[in-house]
Amino acid sequence: MSNNWQQQLQQALTNQHDKPLNQHPAFSDAANELFTHAITAEIRDVIDIHNPQDPVLRQFLPTADETIELQHFNSDPVGDEAATQIPGLIHKYHGRVLLIASGSCAVNCRYCFRRHFPYSQSFAPRNRWRASIDYIAQHPEIHEVILSGGDPLTQETKTLAQLTRNLTKITHVKTLRIHSRIPVVLSQRIDHEFMQWAEPLRLKKVMVLHVNHANELTTKAQNAIKKLKQSGFTLLNQSVLLKGVNDEVEVLAELSKKLFENNVLPYYLHQFDPVQNATHFMIEETTAKEIHQQLQAQLPGYLVPKLVKEIAGEKHKINL
Ligand code: SF4
């Protein structure tokens, strides 16, 4: 791995940087065995390690809470398995498909609804994209391709370029959407090579970032977001409503304002997907609605993300 961002990614995945979380007193080996922890040095830098309630720490530290299993929580809360048409391609909603473009992320968020996803069998690496491309070509109603994962930006730019060379040949595909946490946790990934690839694409480009708390929008992250804007991306953000992270109206309002300062529109606020081993992040739906109503009373409509939940088998997300 030659690029700096790739070295940083490798260090994050192996926790080989100088600030891993495994020395933290609340670090749980049992939880780490269930889902290995990973964090970049860059996002680790914003954590106040002496504050156990730090909202960024809570997102990445494996704790004993994860060993609790409850009824009504499961390993596939949004029905990915049933919607997988071919390995690596999920077709749930009309007009768009989701490609599992990578099996890894730069950080492992403890609440991730795909923490149990069988990536080793199901992501779409380069040599399996052929089947996905053929599927998309055979479905003229598909106008949007969403790259997800894992985090698609863990892939090298030349791999993304190979995919888009194929996608752009399919005339009914108009939009490329990328779901990524990387611009805020590994900002160097948005480098010159990435911009050179993205800028001239004929497809409309949408990047849906994933930021849960304003503390994550560091100066480095803001610079990466600026580069995405310069490259022609429409920028949106999705957050997950998480107990002890962002379940207060002031926290969400601050996040919306800071996103907007950086030309990012708040898009979705997800009601927590009931994924097993992350039950301690759950907010009751009635509480979620109350928080959202208070947010509506504080902010102009365009800064209020839609409060949604995903129900396996439904044809669209449900507004709460
Ligand atoms: S970056 Fe996204 S896919 Fe990866 S662990 Fe976090 S929430 Fe899950």
Question: Can you characterise this structure?
Answer:
The structure is a single chain. This protein is of the alpha/beta class and about 325 residues long. The protein has a single domain (about 70-320), classed as TIM Barrel, CATH 3.20.20. The chain has helices at about 5-15, 30-35, 40-45, 55-60, 80-85, 120, 130-135, 155-165, 180-185, 190-200, 220-230, 250-260, 285-300, and strands spanning about 85, 90, 95-100, 145-150, 175-180, 205-210, 235-240, 265-270, 305-310, 320. A 10-stranded mixed sheet has the order 1-2-3-4-5-6-7-8-9-10. It starts with a helix and ends with a strand. The mean pLDDT is about 90. The chain binds iron/sulfur cluster. The site of iron/sulfur cluster (SF4) has 11 residues, from loops.
Secondary structure layout:
Blueprint: H1 4-14, H2 29-34, H3 41-44, H4 57-60, H5 80-83, E1 84-86, E2 89-90, E3 96-100, H6 119-122, H7 129-137, E4 144-148, H8 157-167, E5 175-180, H9 182-185, H10 192-198, E6 204-210, H11 219-230, E7 233-240, H12 249-261, E8 265-270, H13 285-298, E9 306-309, E10 318-319
What keyword list fits this structure?
10-stranded mixed β-sheet, TIM Barrel, 320 residues, alpha/beta
